[in-house]
Design a protein that fits this description.
The longest helix is centred in the C-terminal third of the chain and has 14 residues, at 189-202. The protein has 2 domains: 3-52, 2-Layer Sandwich (Phosphorylase Kinase, domain 1), CATH 3.30.200; 57-227, 3-Layer(aba) Sandwich (Rossmann fold). The termini are far apart. The protein has a 7-stranded mixed β-sheet with strand order 8-7-6-9-10-12-11, with helices on both faces. The protein has 229 residues and is of the alpha/beta class. The protein has helices at 57-63, 86-95, 108-120, 156-167, 180-183, 189-202; strands spanning 3-6, 13-16, 22-27, 40-43, 46-50, 76-80, 100-105, 124-128, 144-149, 168-179, 205-212, 220-227. Helices cover 26% and strands 32% of the residues.
Length: 229
């Protein structure tokens, strides 16, 4: 039988499987259904989904000891760069039926896959839009508790600031996956990270932590912060 232990963060678990490996997991909001290549494991009538850190910046950050964790029951989240819904689905598990994820994706092909997931999970609202233009989804997205960005764009910091300014509540959190090679392939990633942090701070945002997510992703960091004003 697998062993299940609560993580220090809410609605996250450590799952020790019969092969001896320990994996991150969430409780499956739709038992019997997979979203990607995760494993489904049942214990005491509860089904868990393994959360692969190689396929999720959030999963990577958790494995690298993420301290600030705003993905709680009932949260409203604006997710920029939702892709086909891998990380979105795990957040869906964590925030429960009273939470909402407004999942913005620019690629129509990826959105089709996301819609399939959203049809089974009522707390995911898929939105086909360009995150560079937050006004495109103002008719759908309210003020939110968290802005999550995972967008491969040279202007990714501007995208975050614009969406935080438009949609994030005061004292709300942002979770920002910074992709150095998408910003400038000629610069040292560490220089880029410093520039991004200074840019966010100059916009009045508070940086709580930064996490290098290697070995899961090369030349990426995750920045977690708050909108204090």
């Amino acid at each position: 039988m697998p062993e299940v232990h609560k993580h220090t963060h809410p609605n996250l678990f450590w799952l020790k499987t019969k092969d001896g490996s320990t994996r991150l997991a969430t409780i499956n909001a739709e038992p019997g259904k997979k979203v990607y290549t995760e494993r489904l494991v049942s214990k005491d009538g509860i089904e868990y989904r393994t959360f692969d850190p190689h396929k999720s910046k959030l999963g990577s950050a958790i494995m690298k000891e993420l301290q600030n964790f705003p993905f709680i029951e009932g949260s409203k989240i604006l997710y920029l760069g939702a892709a086909s819904g891998t990380t979105v689905s795990h957040i869906s598990d964590m925030i429960g039926a009273d939470g909402s994820i407004f999942a913005v994706e620019f690629s129509a092909r990826s959105l089709r896959d996301l819609v399939v997931v959203a049809e089974r999970r009522q707390n995911i609202i898929p939105i086909l839009a360009d995150a560079r233009f937050p006004e495109e989804y103002s008719f759908t997205v309210p003020l939110v508790d968290v802005v999550y960005e995972d967008v491969a764009q040279p202007r990714q910091a501007e995208i975050l600031k614009d969406n935080v300014q438009t949609y994030l509540k005061k004292d709300g959190y942002f979770f920002f996956a910074v992709k150095a090679r998408s910003i400038d392939v000629t610069k040292d990633p560490k220089v880029i990270y410093d520039e991004v942090i200074k840019d966010l701070e100059s916009a009045g945002l508070t940086i709580l932590e930064k996490i290098d997510i290697e070995p899961y992703e090369k030349d990426h960091i995750v920045i977690v912060g708050q909108k204090k004003v």
